Sequence to fold (102 residues):
Amino acid sequence: MKYVYECNLMKKRDIEKMLETDPYAENSFSRIGYKTKEGAIIEEDKSKFYVYISSDETFMKKTEEKLKGLAERTKPDIEKRIISLIEKEEESAVSGFGNIFG
Fold:
């Protein structure tokens, strides 16, 4: 499952603090992996901060609970664009490593 959540850019520090809490726990965001993007950088709403998370259904339910009051799931069309952007970035990174290691 791949989801994108959004919040007001002013809540960025609160979100980052929550994402970085207890990084070595079994079900931490650090272990599952996430990506963050500011709206202005990805040509979306400049006042928004976006969080991309890819995980199983169980973790996503916990994510919804932890983000309650901080962020909400973004609209489907924006979510698709951000997921696509992140997947392209990941493909480029993998391709770049391939070129380095031949």
